Amino acid sequence: MTITLNQQLLDLSTPRVMAIMNLTPDSFYDGGRLKSEEQLLAKVQQFIDEGASIIDLGGYSTRPGALDISVEEEISRVLPVVKLIRAHFKDIPLSVDTFRSQVARAALEQGVSMVNDVSGATADDQMLDLIADYQVPYVGMHMRGTPQTMNTLTEYEDIVVEIRHFFSTLAEATAKRNINDLIIDPGLGFAKTVSQNFFLLQHLDAFQLLELPILIGLSRKSMIYKTLHTTPENALNGTSALHMAALERGAHLLRVHDVKEAQECIELYTKLRTSAT
Questions:
Q1: CA 12 from chain center: how many Å?
Q2: Is residue 221 flagged as an active site residue?
Q3: Residue 164 bears catalytic tag
Q4: Going by C-beta distance under 8 Å and a sequence separation of 6 or more, which residues neighbour residue 234?
Q5: Rg (the chain; Cα; Å)
Q6: Domain spans of the chain?
Q7: Who's near 152: CB < 8 A, 6+ residues apart?
């Protein structure tokens, strides 16, 4: 399992960490915390020091019920940060977390090298053509509806089969466009109940049949803090526990708020997997 980032191969045979950098005021955990260029650059340096392989920049909150914003506002949140990071950090791969091809194009033109699309190319019919033009890795996530409506769309006959079919269709569409690096994300918390999230995580290995890298984003999510009757701020231990479960079931990328702890999970998992009897 490899993907090409910044004209270099990233080997996913050992799982990797994607660090979350929310540039929104209303994200469920860390929205609005980075208030200055100094804070932002310090956070990037921290992510790098702790072992992040990719930093994922998002200017549109996708928490349930989040407010919709214009393309222009999303670009105004993302683009200055891309330029700032690129002026100080030349090598760290950047991803843009957006379902809009206009935002993705603006970011790609400024040196972003990956697109993370929560809609799996269902929200913007220009997205896959853009990815084909730029030949960058593409994360396609499964979601129904929009962040504003997804909590009402949680009825499935067989959730694993239906999501796997969604990814098979997406893989066909990317193959037709000669897109080389497709990464799939089952979308925990997006049009899924807490019980469905745990069921998907339990059966994550079913998606290995697609022979595609798997990204998991469960960091501090409601499936953890609601189950433990706590808050996102107190959900780090639960996050680490479920990260290990995801790694054991075939996750190649962990999308996280807390890089150091996720990297430790990967190191322990790798040691456990490679230990001689």
A1: 15
A2: yes
A3: no
A4: 225, 228
A5: 17
A6: 14-272
A7: 145
Q: Of all helices (H) and strands (E), which one includes residue 274?
A: helix 259-274
> Which entry of 221, 226, 249, 273 is annotated as an active-site residue?
221
CATH code, 14-272: 3.20.20.20
pLDDT in tens, 169-186: 999 999 999 999 999 999
Burial tier of 254 (Cβ tally within 10 Å: 0-12, 13-18, 19+): buried
Pair 262, 256: CB distance under 8 Å: yes
Read off the pLDDT of residues 50-95 as tens digits, 9 standing for 90 and up.
999 999 999 998 877 678 899 999 999 999 999 999 999 999 999 9
What tens digit of pLDDT does each residue of 245-270 get?
999 999 999 999 999 999 999 999 99
In the chain, the percentage of residues whose pLDDT exceeds 70 is 95
Q: Over the stretch 10-32, which tens digit does the pLDDT of each residue have? A: 999 999 999 999 998 755 445 55
Cα separations in angstroms, 102 against 52, 54, 114, 137, 266: 27, 21, 14, 17, 35
The catalytic residue among 77, 164, 249, 255 is 255
Q: Give the integer Cα–Cα distance in Å for 262 and 174.
A: 30
Torsion of CA 200, 219, 112, 209, to 10 degrees: -20
Give strand pairing partners of 140. Answer: 117, 184
Cβ neighbours of residue 274 closer than 8 Å, sequence gap 6 or more? none
Please state the length of the chain.
277
Amino acid at 86: R
